[in-house]
Amino acid sequence: MAAVIQTKIHQNPIKIFHGSSRSLTNQSRAPSRIMCAAASPAKKRFNIALLPGDGIGPEVISVAKNVLQLAGSLEGLEFNFQEMPVGGAALDLVGVPMPEDTFSVAKNSDAILLGAIGGYKWDKNEKHLRPEMALFYLRRDLKVFANLRPATVLPQLVDASSLKREIAEGVDMMIVRELTGGIYFGEPRGIKISENGEEVGISTEIYAAHEIDRIARVAFETARKRRGKLCSVDKANVLDASILWRKRVTALASEYPDVELSHMYVDNAAMQLIRDPKQFDTIVTNNIFGDILSDEASMITGSIGMLPSASLGASGPGLFEPIHGSAPDIAGQDKANPLATILSAAMLLKYGLGEEKAAKRIEDAVLDALNKGFRTGDIYSPGNKLVGCKEMGEEVLKSVDSKVAATV
Ligand SMILES: NC(=O)c1ccc[n+]([C@@H]2O[C@H](COP(=O)([O-])OP(=O)(O)OC[C@H]3O[C@@H](n4cnc5c(N)ncnc54)[C@H](O)[C@@H]3O)[C@@H](O)[C@H]2O)c1
Ligand SMILES: CC(C)[C@H](C(=O)O)[C@@H](O)C(=O)O
Ligand SMILES: [Mg+2]
What we know:
Elements: E1 6-9, E2 12-15, H1 22-29, E3 44-53, H2 57-74, E4 77-83, H3 88-94, H4 100-107, E5 111-116, H5 133-142, E6 146-152, H6 165-168, E7 172-178, E8 190-193, E9 199-202, H7 209-225, E10 229-234, H8 240-252, E11 260-265, H9 266-275, E12 282-285, H10 287-300, E13 310-312, E14 318-320, H11 339-352, H12 356-371, E15 374-375, E16 385-386, H13 389-401
Parallel strand pairs: 3-4, 3-5, 5-14, 7-12, 10-11, 10-12, 15-16
Antiparallel strand pairs: 1-2, 6-7, 6-13, 8-9, 13-14
């Protein structure tokens, strides 16, 4: 599997951005040149786990799957899709949010494309039976600690931004969110009874040095390939976990002399994102700050329906999903913007499978559909053509098919 970035942990070189080794096996299982001499060239085969989930999840996944399939086939890739229930859909089917079969298919795939999880129906479930737990199990057990959330204002969508044109235009940042640690997973946690008999809710923000180092390295490497600026966002004026975070990130900076490192408190960062988002190139931050800041950044780009993500570990398949949720308020109405999921499929190709050409086909097709004026409701502005989720998907498919490289 093609590694996109190499890094070091404790001086041992390891691959950071790659999918499982299954694809290599699959390639070797592909028909040999001699056998196929008269037919088309041997195709690379990949197993993709599709986890549609809940709400708008199935709507956006069905569209993204078609786009992935077509873009891949034009680059000689063949996908074996296996669709499995997760979240509320799995709770309804088998009583747990992450069935063993689903995890096993995901773990043994080359990459996972997930829609969204959650919904009103399960909101009152006990915590371990909430759909969202599936996400935690997946992220934790696949060890995908590095979550890349790019927020780019496309020229076609400047008017859809919540910010004024002159502030939004040209924004292009990458949020590197730590995904398997911090307050989401820290112990102790739970709702307990205190000594005076009162209920107390406990969540613990905790980071070990190695967890900070490995995400910081991913962020330095990412910044190095972008504009060379890294801003580490923390709350080191208050939180002990952030004090250690800042110390470790600072200590690593000498290994990346070509990257300009700065630090910012998270409250200021939330404000600066709105005041002057162009100051940011790469941001590295902990699990919860990354969750919040990426939703904020999405509105600079026009909509949360535009932001894809890639979650990557040191080995095994990557997990690719839009940053948005199941949007129960618009589910089943063909109103969802599928572009975040389609762009997540592009990230799957690029970071998960190392198939940059196929990824570029998808990115170009998205730009082409936007250039032609197609807009779902969340990114609509007067003068454009309002379409639903399915039609947007069909337009992107047409653009992939026409092999037109969009001019931005
Ligand atoms: N990764 C995930 O699966 C994920 C992420 C966030 C929230 N959730 C879950 O989703 C459920 C709803 O959460 P929420 O309402 O806070 O967040 P949400 O992201 O689902 O929706 C927030 C708002 O954004 C809109 N929106 C979201 N995605 C859109 C899209 N693709 N196109 C157009 N509009 C879109 C929704 O209609 C809604 O008004 C909850 O159960 C939550 O836990 C799941
Ligand atoms: C649904 C929720 C558990 C999840 C998170 O907080 O990580 C979501 O908001 C996200 O951004 O992927
Ligand atoms: Mg979130």
